[in-house]
Amino acid sequence: MSDAQLDQDFFRIGTSFNRPMPGHSLTRSPNEKLPFEGPPKYTNRTDVLEYYFELFTEEENYLAIMNALESGVSVMEVVQVFIMQGFQQGLYNPDMMLMVAEPLAYMIAALAERAGVEFTIMGDEDEKPTLEQQELPLMNQKMRTIEKPQMDEDFPAELSEKLDNVKAPASLLGER
Q1: CA distances (Å), 137 to each of 39, 129, 145, 167, in order?
Q2: Is the dihedral of CA 95, 99, 104, 105 positive or negative?
Q3: Orientation of helix 157-164 relative to helix 45-57, angle to 10°
Q4: What distance in Å separates the CA atoms of residue 54 and residue 39, rounded to the nearest whole number?
Q5: CA-to-CA distance for 10 and 15, rounded, in angstroms?
Q6: Cα–chain center distance at 70
Q7: Chain center to CA of 143
Q8: Residue 103 confidence (pLDDT)
Q9: 106: exposed, middle or buried (Cβ count in 10 Å: 0-12, 13-18, 19+)
Q10: Could you list the pLDDT tens digit for every one of the 176 residues in the chain?
Q11: What pLDDT is attached to residue 77?
Q12: DSSP code of 141?
């Protein structure tokens, strides 16, 4: 997509009246809360990581994640989808969302490594980092330089052991 097309799309969407007006969320009844407007389901980082481990290792999700990685989607793009979806479902608050991003990336990378799927952590190495990436030194620098997934010191030991024992489904991308 060219810069001119991107600018045109941005202008079209930005000037569209097909969106809620400011303050619209304040006009709903207090009884009609969205999932993320209430207390989060998980407040413990380990509980969130265990939830995602179970979710990632379900055969359907496992195959979908591995197929996405095989097709060139980066690990961090997969993580972003899952953590935003979890927040919108009211599983955790935004602070927890940031706290689990890096361990989830390690988890997905470890699963991909065990399945023999080649993956990228954050896209092309030659790309100039954006301002957003520069503001996230742990997720940017540490994840870009990783050669083999290494769990950080705070990663729960029991989940690390479970990850070591995960076997890739036989139907994953055919024979190797």
Answers
A1: 30, 11, 12, 32
A2: positive
A3: 10
A4: 22
A5: 8
A6: 16
A7: 13
A8: 93
A9: buried
A10: 677 887 788 788 778 777 777 787 778 787 888 888 888 999 999 999 999 999 998 989 999 999 999 988 999 999 999 999 999 999 999 999 999 999 999 999 999 988 888 888 887 655 555 555 555 544 444 444 444 445 556 677 777 777 777 777 665 455 54
A11: 92
A12: I
Predicted structure pTM score: 0.64
Residue closest to 55 by CA, chosen among 83, 75, 76: 83
Q: Which residue carries 């029991």 as its tokens?
A: 158
pLDDT of residue 163: 75
Q: Which residue carries 């076997």 as its tokens?
A: 167
3-state secondary structure 24-88: HHHHCCCCCCCHHHCCCCCCCHHHHHHHHHHHHHCHHHHHHHHHHHHCCCCHHHHHHHHHHHHHH
CA distance 33 to 49: 26
* CB 172, CB 63: distance < 8 Å: yes
State both tokens at 140.
Answer: 């940017």
Could you tell me which residues come within 8 angstroms of residue 162 by beta carbon, excluding any fewer than 6 positions away?
53
C-alpha dihedral over 126, 127, 130, 136, to 10 degrees?
-50
How close are the terminal C-alpha atoms of the chain, in Å? 36
